[in-house]
Amino acid sequence: MPWDGQERRMEYRLRIAPWARGISLRVTLTGAVEVVAPRRYSPRTIARLLRSEAEWIASAQAAVAERRRALPPPPAWELPPEISLPGVGARWAVATRPTAARGVRVFPASPGLLVVAGSVADPAACRYSLRRWLLREGQFHLPPRLASLSRGCGLPYARTTVRLARSRWGSCSRRGVISLNARLLLLPLALVDYVIVHELCHTREPNHSPAFWRLVERHCPTYTARRQELRAAGRRLPTWILDPGERSEVCTTTGGPSFPGSA
């Protein structure tokens, strides 16, 4: 969405969080401005708050730009010789089968062997097909794990979706719909379970209040360590899953001010 700040028209990304108590701002490593707000805030109110924080936004964008310049260039994309999915304890050697077909297919040929067939010399096609394969794996493995933990915790949910996302491991809507990121399979099972428990707790406590964290601790006593491990794991994703130009560090953000007042 556009807004006028410092006499220039700028864009921001709005994420509606019904459970949020107020507006919070952050600047991503790409320099994008993200606003998290409950539904009650009007675009005009958000624009006014953004204008009031224009100086902080400019400073944060300059800081992340400097940080990005200091990063080494992302490596050229290459088909990995091996793929591991710690979240399900699986590992495959990767074999290629070049064919005249347009596009790429990814499929298991035997236990422990994953075949990439088709236009294997096309990095974009290989990347796309591997990502679609990971999405299918996530859609197969994550819902049963969610259902099992839901029963164990006594925290029911409405339904689930599995997607590929850049910056969020999971989310829970106000209606109890839990969305999980297929990239979770790239993490150890303990972190997968922590994310799932975190989202299940949101079915009862929709915000990050002290009551929410007490509920998380009840079902995951080691949650503080898991939170730290999750932050580190997000910076160590394998390059084959990343979008063109994306870095694992893209999930890192510069947190900004919060506005807890009324709309």
How would you characterize the overall build of this protein?
With 263 residues, the protein is an alpha/beta fold. The protein folds into two domains: 2-71 and 252-259, no CATH class; 129-246, Metalloproteases ("zincins"), catalytic domain (Zincin-like, 2-Layer Sandwich). Helix content is 35%, strand content 26%. The chain is built from six helices and 13 strands. The strands form four sheets. It has a four-stranded mixed sheet with strand order 3-5-4-13, covered by helices on one side. α3 crosses α4 and α4 (189-202) crosses α5. The longest helix has 31 residues, at 123-153. The protein is globular, with a radius of gyration of 21 Å.
Provide keyphrases for this structure:
single chain, four-stranded mixed beta sheet, 2 domains, alpha/beta, globular, 35% helix
SSE layout and pairings?
Layout (H helix, E strand, L loop, with lengths): L1 E4 L2 E4 L1 E4 L6 E6 L4 E5 L5 H10 L1 H17 L11 E4 L4 E9 L5 E7 L2 E6 L4 H31 L5 E5 L6 E3 L4 E5 L7 H14 L7 H10 L3 H11 L19 E7 L4
Parallel strand pairs: 3-5, 7-9, 10-12
Antiparallel strand pairs: 1-2, 4-5, 4-13, 6-7, 8-9, 11-12
Helix pairs in contact: 3-4, 4-5
Number of domains: 2
- Under CATH, the topology of the largest domain can be stated as Zincin-like
User: Spans with pLDDT under 50 lasting ≥5 residues?
Assistant: 248-254
User: Please, how many helices?
Assistant: 6
Query: Biggest sheet, in brief?
Result: 4 strands, mixed
- What oligomeric state is this? single chain
Percent of sequence in beta strands? 25-35%
- Report the count of strand segments: 13
The ordered string of helix (H) and strand (E) elements is: EEEEEHHEEEEHEEEHHHE
The class by helix and strand makeup works out as: alpha/beta
